[in-house]
Amino acid sequence: MPSRIEGKVAQILTARELVINKGTVDGVEVGMRFAVLNSRGVDIKDPDTGEALGSVEIEKAIVKVVRVSDRLAVARTFRTYRIPGGSFYLGSTKVLEQMMRPPRTEIETLQTDERRLKDELDESGSYIKKGDPVVQVIGDEFDQDDSQ
Description:
Strand content: 35-45%
Distance between the termini: 30 Å
Strand order of the largest sheet: 1-2-7-6-3-10
Shape: globular
CATH class: Mainly Beta
Number of domains: 1
Helix content: under 10%
Structural class: mainly beta
CATH topology: Thrombin, subunit H
Low-confidence stretches: 113-120
Number of helices: 1
Mean pLDDT: 79
Largest sheet: 6 strands, antiparallel, barrel
Order of helices and strands: EEEEEEEEHEE
């Protein structure tokens, strides 16, 4: 298995874009996917012996490189998720409107609150932070079944 490219988030640009501190000199190409990781991961211990077995990487988001230069790459969220329609939310004054709402598909963003959509995103409003580790995604290591 080829070694994967590892770097860090250098900047948050928008609700969907960030900059990675790796570029063409590091082997990054347009179309590559990177997982932005939780910096702590999860340490796993054997339930019988208490022995440390290792650590598991936990991804916050997956981004795809859309622009690349020598020493940096701009990457964008691309995964979508389905929001079911026909909610029976009774707290609404528009119950019928809520019930009749059609299902829709939305694109994942970096925002902590998906209801706020702005062109520019301040780092304080993002669950992705400068310095978060990123790793190249090879194969389906971080793929999720979004149909659930």
